[in-house]
Amino acid sequence: MDQFRWCFIGTGRLANQVAKQIIESGNHEIVTCFSRNQEKCKEFAEKYHAQACDSSEEALRSDQINGVYIVTPHNAHFRYVRQALEAGKSVLCEKAFTVTSQETDELIRIAHEKKLYLAEAMWTWFSPCANQVKKWIDEKEIGEIKDVSFTYHMKSINYAPRVSDPRRAGGALLDITVYPITYAYRLFGFPETIDSKAVLSNGIDVSEDIALTFRDGIKASISASIIDMKGLEKMRINGSKGMITSSFYHASTKTVLRKGLFYKRIFRSSKQPFNSYVDEFDTVASEIREGLLESRMVPLSATSDVMHIMDEIRSQIGLVYDNLE
Q1: Residue 253 banded pLDDT, cuts 50, 70, 90
Q2: pTM score, two decimals?
Q3: Range of the domain at 32
Q4: Is residue 300 included in any domain, yes or no?
Q5: Number of domains forming the structure of the chain
Q6: What residues are paired with 151 via a beta bridge?
Q7: What is the CATH number of the domain that holds 253?
Q8: What is the per-residue pLDDT for 117?
């Protein structure tokens, strides 16, 4: 099958990580790219044999493009996704999908109106390990679920300038806490109650503790921080007959199910290496070629629901995104 041809809007650190992997897979090609930093854009284009464009309009204009990947800071997602949809292009947009649920729902409306594919690039939804966890739970391998805990403390405030920049919707919630929120939502649906606390500093949230209650009384606790490494990254799901432990951010290495004192089942994904984006991009390319209007893996209703959950969390912790660029 011919390579799937992409336009990249955004050419920063994550764009380079993704581009390297999907190009090396042999299944994808990057045709055009755009970034407000023209020096980075030209470097990216040279590295991946793409055309560096002076404007996003120029990058989207090519009739060779099969899909557009938006990988800019969060505050620019709405602008560029809308522009791509209005140009008649299918879109895969990085998490967090937008800054607010209102923006997300407006983009979904436009995509439906124009009958175009739109999906969130939440790679955990495409992970074989994460899908195995959901299968075990759906099949009641560990009985009735009692509770689940997520810890994601990664000192990532200096990962990229956007993370600490309130004008670019920086902070923990949209950058890292979105992962455990999304994971819990995928397993248990929309929470019945949400209780949130956070530490705010210099216009962003640097850490938060969130308690979610789901149907049947299932409780999820989330602790996340971008300023320390306490607890690192882990997930534990407790059931009446056992437990499941795994990483959840990428969930591309392994997950473990334990029952009783001696029973242990390990599922390890061998399809792709650690931190792989290839599953995600191969799946999206296939779905667009099928003519789907949204992803089977990440339904637009789920993306909207998670954004609504995060709106409520922001309201509770008093986080307001003012003066966005």
Answers
A1: low
A2: 0.94
A3: 4-123+277-294
A4: no
A5: 2
A6: 223, 234
A7: 3.30.360.10
A8: 98
